[in-house]
Design brief:
Layout: H1 7-17, H2 37-51, E1 56-58, H3 66-81, E2 88-92, H4 97-107, E3 113-116, H5 123-126, H6 131-134, E4 139-143, H7 144-149, H8 152-155, E5 157-163, H9 175-180, E6 184-191, H10 200-210, H11 218-229, H12 237-243, E7 247-248, H13 255-258, E8 264-271, H14 275-292, H15 297-316, H16 318-322, H17 333-347, E9 352-356, H18 359-373, E10 378-380, H19 386-398, E11 404-408, H20 409-412, E12 423-426, H21 433-440, E13 452-459, H22 463-473, H23 476-482, H24 495-502, H25 506-509
Parallel strand pairs: 1-6, 1-7, 2-4, 2-5, 3-4, 5-6, 8-13, 9-11, 9-12, 10-11, 12-13
Helix pairs in contact: 2-3, 10-11, 14-15, 17-18, 22-23
């Protein structure tokens, strides 16, 4: 006779497998945003799994809002567990820490956070964080790198231990994987849009984090999956049944999701500066301050425009400003962020448009992305022959092997139909929303059958973030400052206003 689940266990497993029927988990009014129906289901499911002390893998497709679901869960726990609640820990790639902090501020400003990273605190202060520092904190946000450098994350007791971009622990032998698996928490959660990137071993490592032992040892699991692969029909059905209670994955192609989604989703891709970028930016701020005092009238306007361009070039990549031809990935926070996004797009076998306002950046971007995707893409800018443009568009639309199209904003921002793309990346920002929207509409237009995800790159702590905040606020000042003229009206600011706008917030801007 076999082992049979009792009524409670059978009912619980069924709830985990079919979370739509679960009781409501209400984050309350502190959530500054409206959860979509599938996101409410996700929060209910996460709440049930974590309340049972089990681990969960939220594996929703990119752009479906894993972040807001986790923040809503934290608010639910604050309401339901009260004083019994311990702080939670969130571990993410260093380039995403600013993103998480910004999303907390946007959706759940009542959540008290501590960003435990060299970019947000003196290096010495990171090693000595303890119960005193955590007493009034709801969520600690840190990086995988920090887990390796300081002991307290693995010795503290957490409410939840959440790994963002959990494919970072797909290699069982990696140091950061071993460090993550030492975390002590009431429940563990893994967030990833690609739970299986290359092989089933990726799934084993994530599950060994969320529910250790469920899939056996790595050697046992390898033998098990090999036996399954030899089955004639539905070979991996038993594995799917085994993991299904603990993994929730919704795709943009799911009818239950797509009917509820807007056709176009815009997300900010926050980037941090490398040390080299920060040094060049600081130097430029100092030189601008010196030159403003000696310039008047049209000369002053020219100085301001030249420096605004310089700041944007430095935010893109030091090599754009220096003209040294190096374009090293390690020199630019935007390059690192672009790799992360492009890797997910490549894993989903989707296509992307990448817009930049600078022609000199198009070729380096295309070379870099060709390495990430493993296939060459296309480039179009102002010097591309007009007769070739239609040929390039047709190739992008029809050729499945072309994964991306890099376009200069002025040349490719209007008049082209590029609906083969489901991602639009604004690598640098044209400070006029109408111009950006027109470029986005190359993909988001009649004939588009897929949802379009728009990624807008913003360097934290720089003039890029401050202008972005102005645009988003939709205040009269924003309209007056930016309407029609992008940078032009910024030249009318007084010296102190301008220097405040371009000043570098080092804590926000610096990356690991």
């Amino acid at each position: 006779s076999g082992v049979v689940a009792g009524p409670w266990l059978a009912a619980t497993l069924e709830e985990l497998r079919s979370p739509r029927a679960l009781d409501e988990a209400d984050p309350g009014r502190e959530l500054r945003g409206t959860l979509r129906p599938y996101q409410k289901v996700g929060v209910r499911w996460l709440h049930l799994v974590s309340s049972l002390g089990l681990g969960a893998c939220l594996a929703d497709d990119m752009g479906l809002g894993k972040t807001i679901q986790v923040l809503a869960l934290l608010l639910v726990l604050r309401r339901t567990r009260g004083a019994r609640r311990r702080p939670s820990l969130l571990v993410a790639p260093a380039s995403l820490l600013a993103n998480w902090a910004a999303e907390v501020e946007r959706f759940a400003p009542g959540i008290r956070i501590l960003v435990a990273h060299a970019s947000a605190a003196p290096a010495g202060g990171l090693t000595s964080i303890g119960s005193k520092e955590l007493a009034n904190v709801d969520l600690v946000i840190t990086s995988y790198g920090t887990l390796l450098r300081v002991p307290w994350p693995t010795t503290a007791a957490w409410e939840l231990a959440v790994l963002d971009e959990a494919q970072a622990i797909k290699n069982p032998g990696a140091k950061q994987t071993r460090a993550a698996k030492k975390l002590r928490a009431r429940a563990r959660i893994a967030l990833t849009g690609t739970p299986v990137e290359n092989r089933l071993g990726d799934l084993w490592s994530i599950f060994d984090f969320i529910n250790p032992g469920l899939l056996g040892s790595v050697k046992t699991f390898a033998g098990y999956t090999k036996r399954l692969a030899d089955r004639p029909q539905n070979p991996y059905g038993p594995l799917r049944d085994l993991v299904r209670p603990y993994i929730l994955r919704r795709l943009k192609t799911d009818t239950s999701v797509i009917s509820d989604l807007p056709d176009k989703t815009e997300v900010k891709a926050y980037c941090q500066l490398t040390r080299r970028q920060a040094a060049l930016y600081q130097q430029a701020v100092g030189e601008l301050a010196d030159e403003l005092g000696a310039a008047e009238g049209m000369k002053r306007r020219g100085v301001v425009l030249a420096y605004l361009t310089r700041f944007k070039q430095i935010c893109n990549h030091p090599s754009q400003w220096l003209g040294d031809g190096a374009w090293a990935e390690s020199d630019s926070g935007k390059w690192a962020r672009l790799r992360e996004i492009a890797e997910v797009i490549a894993a989903r076998q989707q296509k992307a448009l990448v817009f930049t306002q600078y022609r000199e950046v198009t070729a380096p971007l295309a070379a870099f992305l060709g390495g990430v995707f493993g296939h060459a893409g296309l480039v179009l800018h102002g010097q591309t022959e007009v007769k070739r443009r239609a040929e390039l568009v047709k190739r992008f639309q029809d050729d499945e092997s072309v994964p991306f199209f890099v376009l200069s904003l002025k040349a490719g921002g209007s008049g082209l139909n590029l609906t083969a793309a489901s991602h639009v990346i604004h690598f640098d920002r044209w400070w006029n929303p109408a111009v950006e929207n027109q470029a986005t509409d190359r993909a988001f237009r009649i004939g588009q059958t897929k949802n379009v995800l728009v990624h807008k790159f913003v360097c934290r702590g720089t003039v890029e973030e401050k202008i972005d905040t102005l645009i988003e606020s939709k205040k009269t000042l924003s309209r007056e400052l930016l309407e029609g003229g992008s940078e032009i009206n910024l030249t009318e600011l007084k010296d102190d206003e301008l220097l405040k706008l371009v000043a570098l917030d080092l804590k926000a801007a610096m990356k690991e």
